[in-house]
């Protein structure tokens, strides 16, 4: 076994992968199996390097002293020649002219060298990219793309030799004979090309282009299938397909007008100058967008408006009678909105495009969202749709189902099952609006673009699928006893407590890790400057908020009984959705945090379900 040359804590010079540049690093560990050193750069980036890519600082200092010791002899020779007795005034003038030319040439060379070093410095490690090096980078898509483009730009051997020679900062007369020189404009155009190519989405989700194309049709079909099944006397899965209504019965202009009125009423509430204004997380260009936090105020105003309608005896169960038509109207509106979003994204600057929706494929970018934060002035379309029309509409639909149950079954009070479903889901919505600021740190806001996926999800899937239990109970009433209701309530409270306390813990730590109230939390530091919690709920499982979500979803479905599996579609869907999100989060965190994430996974082995998954 080879002997170890560098000790832990020793400061050495480490070569950055794919370049000839060395940076000052500190040795933090050594792997006896792979014979790789773990080193840490000044900006916190951690890499694994081979011993051949590490040099001691003394070797660099020795080279510097050798080059400086040779310069006095050249200067003395130059002085002896300038003072030669055989040279007259004309010679001295020629010498002064040559000296000025020499200085100008040296100044020009140094300027060109700085530009060349700027290109080479483009590969300097950044605090947002932790990579491992074992001969070749393990996850270096940005570096690979950048290196390919640079190799195309600097392909001729003569040009490559020239850039490397300039790094020595020594002027050479033969460089004057070269016709092509690298200007700053050309260098910065190269960097711009590199950044544009590296910002493209490389890994496609949801089955890529074919999968997203199918989902555009499959998602609306799923919604309509679920609503049609709930209307059947026997909503068994064996009764497939359900009888399809006439096409002309699915559309009514009045229903579409009511939907538009609802959408723009929520937009009006969003624009009211009430509530605090906060900053979002930094964007790729360092900017922070401003958001007005007034979702709870919009909910209160909506409740007042609905109360006024009920006072004047407006029949809110109109929603139940035209539920399918409202779903069709919402789907048509979301499709039109998605088309508008994609067309406007074609003119958006490169830095405003979504990291996950910039593949260059029309269908994929249309589905996932091409632009990250589309805005009309200060009106943020994605942020508005995320919580307002669909989430508040979910509560209104549940209330309409409760009133429809009372009218259809001639009841003076709603059933206990309907009360539980309405109460549980009302708590969930009010919690989301009360903690509205927390959504600014989610991947929906920071990573995903606003396209068909979020537009359809916010405006159609949330209000019409999440209200499936209440819609089911209208046509299929289920009686439950008070002890059963109490047990279901306790289950929902457990899920809510896990969900809320885990999210609050994460958001508080992310906003201010130095908060004295969080001093009891332990974490693993990362190269990005952020920490990974290993105590509290986040030391129990990696995604405790998902665990709370699933427990609550089960509590929402239990009041519907066990006669049919249809009310439990939401639980099945939620588990599949969260497992997908968990896998995406795992991949994203592994790329972002590198070795720190591997240590976190060893410390917290279970993902969602303790001792199971």
TrEMBL record:
EC top class named in words: oxidoreductase
Record-annotated membrane-spanning stretches: 206-228, 253-272, 293-312, 324-343, 454-474, 480-499, 520-541, 561-580
Stored Gene3D superfamilies: 1.20.120.1630, 2.30.30.140
Biased composition (Basic residues): 76-95
Assigned keywords, A-Z: Cholesterol biosynthesis, Cholesterol metabolism, Cytoplasm, DNA-binding, Endoplasmic reticulum, Lipid biosynthesis, Lipid metabolism, Membrane, Nucleus, Oxidoreductase, Phosphoprotein, Receptor, Steroid biosynthesis, Steroid metabolism, Sterol biosynthesis, Sterol metabolism, Transmembrane, Transmembrane helix
Domain Tudor, first and last residues per copy: 4-62
Biased composition (Low complexity): 55-75
Database matches in SMART domains: TUDOR
Pfam families on file: ERG4_ERG24, LBR_tudor
Highest taxon of the lineage: Eukaryota
Oxidoreductase among keywords: yes
Name of protein: Delta(14)-sterol reductase LBR
Protein source organism: Glareola pratincola
Membrane topology term: Multi-pass membrane protein
Localization, UniProt: Cytoplasm; Endoplasmic reticulum membrane; Nucleus inner membrane
Reactions accelerated catalytically: 5alpha-cholest-8,14-dien-3beta-ol + NADPH + H(+) = 5alpha-cholest-8-en-3beta-ol + NADP(+); 4,4-dimethyl-5alpha-cholesta-8,24-dien-3beta-ol + NADP(+) = 4,4-dimethyl-5alpha-cholesta-8,14,24-trien-3beta-ol + NADPH + H(+); 4,4-dimethyl-8,14-cholestadien-3beta-ol + NADPH + H(+) = 4,4-dimethyl-5alpha-cholest-8-en-3beta-ol + NADP(+)
